[in-house]
Amino acid sequence: MQKQLLRRGAGLYGEDQVEQSPETLRLQEGYSSSINCSYKDINFRGLHWYKQDIGEGPRFLFSLYSVGEEKQKGRLRATLLKKGSSMDLTAPKPEDSATYLCAVDTQCSPSLRSLHQKPAPGALE
């Protein structure tokens, strides 16, 4: 039985980039594979993996913060690398067919954060 696992990268503002590969992956049931997420030009704070089933919103899987850190949930295991992450799917089953997404937390500069502050009460009157 074949199935399809789809992934998309999450983009960030400016020069920051997050990419996932491969874009589409077809697996035979029981054969393991990996999904990779890489990032560049980012003031890194953490990397997160999500699973999105057809017709559903993304569901949180893992957060990784330190190079070499590993997390496992069932047949999924994610590892944080120096400029990315690898998520391995061991012995996939039909219920694993989904879109897998990665996202990266970044550190904003104080000047950028101030652009998004709420106005003080009465400031807009």
UniProtKB/TrEMBL annotation:
Classification via Pfam families = V-set
Ig-like domain sequence ranges: 16-113
* Ion transport among keywords: no
| Organism from which the protein derives | Sciurus vulgaris
Q: Name one GO molecular function term.
A: peptide antigen binding
Show the InterPro entries listed in the entry.
Answer: Ig-like_dom, Ig-like_dom_sf, Ig-like_fold, Ig_V-set, TCR_variable_domain
* Protein name listed in UniProt: T cell receptor alpha variable 20
Q: Which SUPFAM superfamilies match?
A: Immunoglobulin
Give the SMART domains listed for this entry: IGv
BP terms from Gene Ontology: adaptive immune response
